[in-house]
Amino acid sequence: MTSSISLLRTAIISKKAIKLIPEGATISDAKELAIEGQPLLSLDEQTGFVNQEDNVNEALRAVYQCWIHHEASTTDYLADCEKNSIAVINFLERTELNSYLSGSSDTCKYLATSDGNKKLEAAGTTTSTENRTNGKKSTSKRGETSESSLGEMHKRQKIIDSDPFLKSVLENEREIVDHNSALRGSKPVKFANLAKECEYKIVRPLKRETGSSRDSGSKAHRHHHQEHVDPHSLSVVLKHKDPIIILSPSASALINLGNVKNFLENGKFVDTSIEATQGSAGSQNVVEIVRNSKKFNRKIKFLVVSDVDRFFTKPEHWDRVVAVFTTGQEWQFKNYRYSRPNILFQKVKGFYVHYNEDLIPPSIKGWNLEVIPIERSRRFRDKQTSEHLWEILEKFMATKGYK
């Protein structure tokens, strides 16, 4: 029998009509998925896609929710999942799943029932199906071993012993730490930064509003304003204040305080390891850059810093950060508000600038960075590269509410 995720993939590739049943229902209220030319699929049916976060076989509802938001930002996807009480699939797994569903990739390593999987997994799936057909209902919770699971293990071992080739393959396999476990580590998580963020973004604004509301007319006006303006949007945070760009303090960084103004304002890149411009940067803590933005139809002043310990004396400085340049070294984020790169670059736009023939470190591929290649010798390309970087940054600022 063809799995539900395979039917969904086939429908997406062939651009067949897909709709929720009952019609007009939201993803959380719908019961079934209707695909043109196919029987109705239950949204609660397991798909074989295993969420590595908690080792759960996800239902069709979570998989279809992921596809619905394949062009949306991570923030919008997380917000909609929370609103509809649907399981969240992390960034790397979601990217691979969407590539598989769209047909860009023929396989998905998180899909237990995808083509090309080991015979061992196929045998386990068949055994589980036979047990359900015979009316054997599993009552064990995740992580508990029951008699039926022990029986499955014996059957799987029997299949392995009967196939010498499969046995030799399994003997050479080794388990590796998954991406999330490697990033999480064993240290306890501290939420001091979250408490500060709540203090400055929620508690203090509420106190100011309470103190300034003197009459019912002003209260009604403020309530109407709050319904239309997000207090956390950049248009509110950066009102009468300049946005901030953080550079990497690393000596290997191509963009530093000595050449950033020339590159971002004039579209000219100067290699500070060759020309003696670094000396002028050594006496500077902050560089001001003025951008004549066509997207926002006005001039915008940006403050560029590299030493956050010296410049970021108030928590509100972090609210004004719109971009971070990095060389891929995690020590750079040690004293940041968000010290984990995969969280930091969901809040601000991240850039990795490198010479186009240099290799990109594999560690940054899961950080959601924009990779900006620079020509080593052809300087006429610098203006195009600079404008491309500005286009990405201004588009990000617009999505965050900047006007």
Automatic annotation (TrEMBL):
Residues 208-218 have a biased composition (Basic and acidic residues). Residues 240-396 form the Cell division control protein 73 C-terminal domain. GO terms for biological process: positive regulation of transcription elongation by RNA polymerase II; transcription elongation by RNA polymerase II. Keywords: Nucleus, Transcription. GO terms for molecular function: RNA polymerase II complex binding. It holds the Pfam family CDC73_C. It is found in: Nucleus. InterPro entries: Cdc73/Parafibromin, CDC73_C, CDC73_C_sf. Residues 121-154, 208-232 are annotated as: Disordered. It comes from the Eukaryota. Gene3D superfamilies: RNA polymerase II accessory factor, Cdc73 C-terminal domain (3.40.50.11990). One of its GO terms (cellular component) is Cdc73/Paf1 complex. Signal peptide: none annotated. Belongs to the CDC73 family. This is Cell division control protein 73 C-terminal domain-containing protein.
